[in-house]
UniProtKB/TrEMBL annotation:
InterPro entries for the chain: Dehydratase_Activator_Redct, FldB/FldC_alpha/beta
Phylogenetic lineage: Bacteria, Bacillati, Actinomycetota, Coriobacteriia, Eggerthellales
Organism superkingdom: Bacteria
Name the record gives this protein: 2-hydroxyglutaryl-CoA dehydratase
Alphabetical list of Pfam families matching this protein: HGD-D (PF06050)
């Protein structure tokens, strides 16, 4: 890492190197999360109505986002690490005082400390609200951490009530997305579903309580169900499985879902925060795939295998497996998925992403996969 007075060259030239003025430690904090699919809506609600702070909204990511994160990262760290680090750099440049890193089921739980160290070495001043440091501890420990890092006057009663509302918002967003993925590929008016989703997201983003969330959900679902569609008698159905971050985040998987929807495919994806965090039951899932799995293979492995088997049993036309390059748990899943493919005679497309993955190569593979499963269905 270059010294503060040294002119940066090469990849480090992408990374801002400066100290921001110190802020009044007692002023209202500006809090930023990483980018993660449509969950920025929940992050905003959490910051404003649980932490009682100001939310720093990030714009749509660009190529520079991942380039900055990659420049400050080890070459061999997984792509989600680089995406998140780039997000944090942009958030700090936008004035964030506090960065939030939630614990994850894999190495994500260790990322917060390393990312904090990298950013401090780059000259940034901020607080890191890293929930991995209190994983498995009591609710009081979570509250104490939030008070220490963000808001010492945090209301316990209001915070708990709004945290429950945030969980409901997660479930609502995921239920809406499930319906969107099932129907959007069959739209008869180009762009109608995307416009409806933007309206729904704006409505949900404006919610300030549980009642607002419930009403926004009712309006959003009703609007989707009223849009004109043309569903074939036997549509092409594809199930998406894979790693916790890449399978969910559109920026990380290069908007793979949109590519399939534009081909008229009916999509399903079990991996989301509701299924993996709020309602997750590892023993039950493992029993459902006992002929393939006898033990816990990793943070998302059981869900990946269970979802793939479920899609195969329902007669889906294909499965797409998404992961970041070098993701060990999902690499371990691949031989099992190949067994499922053979047992149920269902094609599986394996896609691995790193910071250099481009749309061009991805589009070619997706189009070839779609042509294959469409021809098989026609036969």
């Amino acid at each position: 890492m270059p010294d503060a007075g040294e002119k940066q060259t090469g990849p480090w030239a992408l990374v801002p190197k400066r100290k921001r003025p110190k802020r009044n430690r007692h002023s209202r904090k500006k809090v930023a999360f990483l980018r993660y699919g449509y969950y920025d809506i929940v992050f905003k609600f959490f910051v404003e109505h649980v932490l009682d702070a100001d939310f720093v909204a990030l714009p749509e990511p660009t190529r520079k986002t991942i380039e900055m994160g990659s420049a400050a990262s080890n070459d061999f760290v997984c792509a989600p690490f680089k995406h998140i680090l780039g997000d944090y750099m942009e958030a700090l440049e936008l004035g964030a005082d506090v960065l939030v890193q939630f614990t994850g089921p894999c190495r994500l739980g260790y990322y917060g400390e390393l990312q904090e160290s990298i950013l401090r070495d780059a000259g940034y001043e901020f607080e890191m609200l890293n929930f991995a440091t209190v994983t498995g501890k009591s609710l009081q420990d979570y509250i104490s951490l939030c008070k220490k890092k963000v808001n010492p006057d945090l209301s316990l009663t209001q915070g708990v009530a709004n945290m429950l509302a945030a969980f409901k918002m997660i479930e609502s967003l995921d239920a809406y997305n499930d319906l969107f993925l099932r129907l959007a590929g069959h739209e008869t008016e180009a762009g109608s579903f995307e416009r409806a989703r933007k309206t729904y997201f704006a409505d949900m983003r404006a919610a300030s309580c549980r009642h607002d969330i419930d009403e926004a959900q009712k309006r959003g679902i009703a609007a989707l169900e009223q849009l004109p569609v043309s569903i074939p008698a036997d549509p092409v159905r594809v199930g998406i499985v894979g790693e916790y971050f890449t399978a969910v985040d559109a920026a990380s998987n290069l908007d793979l879902e949109r590519k399939f929807l534009d081909m008229g495919v009916e999509l399903y994806r079990m991996m989301n925060l509701t299924n993996r965090n709020l309602r997750y039951n590892e023993p039950n899932l493992r029993r459902s795939v006992s002929e393939y799995v006898n033990f816990d293979m990793g943070p998302t492995s059981t869900m990946t295998i269970a979802a793939a088997k479920n899609y195969a049993e329902q007669g889906f036309d294909g499965i797409v497996h998404l992961k970041s390059s070098g993701c060990t748990p999902e690499i371990d899943c691949m031989p099992v998925l190949q067994r499922i493919s053979r047992d149920y005679r269902i094609p599986i497309l394996f896609l691995s992403y790193d910071s250099q993955t481009s749309d061009t190569g991805l589009d070619t593979r997706i189009e070839a996969f779609y042509d294959m499963i469409a021809m098989r269905k026609a036969r």
